[in-house]
Specification:
heterodimer; A: about 190 residues; mainly alpha; de novo design (two linked rop proteins); about 80% helix; B: about 300 residues; 4 strands
Chain lengths: ~190, ~300
């Protein structure tokens, strides 16, 4: 056979392989990015749900904890911080603040037996702790997704394609030390 | 933390690679059976393949279609009741694990039983169900329950139900085809002398032995796949909860558990976290689950 024909065929095969590689790579990048966006959307939903429970909580404890203005104010302040946060990290920091404020509130509530017997209060406490756990796991999944994405675009040969696509590594959500002391609820 | 997840990832990668290799072996086994059957009956392998493959695919399809609802009914499971505090906690844990895994939340069911156990079912993450026994809800603390649910969620994420259902189908198809072949051989007994000469008879005898043993081989392979997937679900589950000790402790409690009377058909055994049916065979190659001690040891080494 003609030598140029053989070389031509080899070149075509190599080009096809590279193209297939690029297509599968491109799809993975898109999928991993979508996973990150979806993971953040989940966190956002939980954050909003948490913030929405606060007014109800305030109404319930208002009548009982009349002299605990500082504790209650800390909670409402944290809630406003969540509502006005602009970046993901800001939202997470505001949420950490809320977790701390709620921890104090629930600790103080221990000395109000009437409040502790209030069904509404108990239900809200359960819900708030539950959303706290949900945010914690959503955040974990978010960071896992970012790790997966960063690994994909930083390792060879992916990084070549990534540069072509203009993809940059993303930042994980930082978890401040304070929030790690979140009390584990045992039923 | 990065160090820890690397170890888990190695576990996960190794188990996934092993599964792929074993599945390829199953497919090779299936096609070998077609070939051997062809040799026995004196028919060209292409013919047996053309007849056998649709039979096998049809069998696998039937197994696939009927598995889910039958599992739930067989176990006598009912949807979890959010008014019950323990069941509410179960619902919470399933929600949390699905968020950690990035999957839609499965439906939550409860099975009345004093045993500590749980299973997951569903071919697609969107249609899946996680069920726990009332025994599990009563005897496990939050961390341990979380470990168990993480394990079940990993089964869903890794499509284990799908993998195991198809594998069961392949095993059944091999057994079915082998049986048909042996029967056809006995009915047409006299004709085998007509074909090839002396050397051909040896080949046919080997093929017959192979076809008789094939169902046993395929069952052993199926059980090996099942055990691998259990290790994988343990590792993946530990990664979801970031707490291998939780599941390890739950398995310790299961170890000391007194068996109740299990309901349901035996095919659902691999979906449980611990085989509820064959206590005696628990630690042998005939078991669908790896030995509890080894699972605990691996979890504690993560």
């Amino acid at each position: 056979m003609d030598l140029t024909l053989i070389i031509g065929l080899i070149v075509i095969v190599i080009v096809v392989i590279i193209l297939l590689w690029f297509f599968s790579y491109y799809n993975r990048v898109i999928r991993y990015e979508n996973r990150i966006d979806n993971a953040w959307a989940q966190i956002d939903v939980q954050l909003k749900r948490r913030a929405d429970l606060i007014p109800n909580l305030m109404e319930t404890v208002k009548g009982y904890m009349i002299h605990e203005r500082g504790t209650l104010e800390a909670v409402t302040k944290a809630r406003s911080a969540i509502m006005t946060a602009k970046t993901p990290q800001e939202s997470m920091d505001a949420d950490t603040m809320l977790t701390g404020a709620l921890k104090s509130l629930f600790a103080v509530a221990e000395s109000y037996p009437d409040l502790k017997a209030n069904q509404n209060f108990l239900q809200l406490q359960d819900e708030l702790t539950h959303t706290e756990d949900k945010i914690s796991y959503s955040r974990q999944h978010f960071n896992d997704s970012i790790l997966q994405f960063n690994n994909l675009i930083e390792t060879f040969p992916g990084n070549i394609f990534a540069n072509m696509m203009g993809k940059k590594t993303r930042e994980m959500l930082q978890i401040p030390e304070a929030s790690k002391e979140v009390p584990k609820v045992s039923f | 933390m990065a160090q820890q997840s690397l170890l888990l990832e190695d576990h996960i990668r190794k188990n996934k690679r092993d599964t792929v290799i074993i599945c390829m072996l199953m497919v090779i086994l299936l096609f070998s059976v077609f070939f051997a059957v062809g040799l026995i009956l004196g028919a060209p392998p292409i013919l047996t393949m053309m007849i056998g493959l649709p039979i096998a695919l049809f069998y696998i399809f039937i197994t696939y279609s009927f598995s889910i609802q039958s599992v739930i009914s067989a176990a006598g499971a009912r949807p979890a009741n959010p008014q019950n505090r323990e069941e509410k906690l179960l619902i919470y844990k399933v929600e949390e694990m699905s968020l950690a895994a990035g999957l839609p939340t499965p439906k939550v069911y409860v099975q009345e039983s004093r045993d500590i156990n749980a299973f997951a079912t569903g071919h697609k993450p969107q249609d899946s169900i996680i069920c726990a026994t009332t025994g599990a809800l009563q005897q496990l603390n939050t961390e341990e329950l979380e470990g168990v649910i993480g394990h079940e969620m990993s089964h869903i994420r890794n499509r284990d139900i799908l993998v195991m259902t198809v594998t069961v189908g392949v095993v059944g198809a091999i057994a079915l085809i082998a049986e048909i072949a042996i029967r056809m051989l006995f009915w047409s007994g006299g004709r085998s002398g007509d074909r090839k000469g002396g050397g051909g008879i040896i080949v046919v005898v080997i093929a017959i032995i192979f076809v008789i043993l094939a169902p046993i081989f395929s069952r052993l392979t199926y059980l090996t796949i099942s055990r691998r997937r259990e290790y994988l679900a343990d590792a993946d589950g530990a990664y979801l909860t970031r707490n291998p000790e939780g599941l390890a402790q739950a398995l310790e409690k299961i170890k000391g558990d007194i068996p109740d009377d299990p309901k349901g058909s035996k095919t659902v055994a691999p979906l449980y976290i611990s085989n509820p049916f064959k206590r005696a065979l628990r630690d042998s190659i005939w078991s669908t689950h790896p030995p509890l001690d080894e699972r605990i040891r691996r979890l504690r080494s993560m």
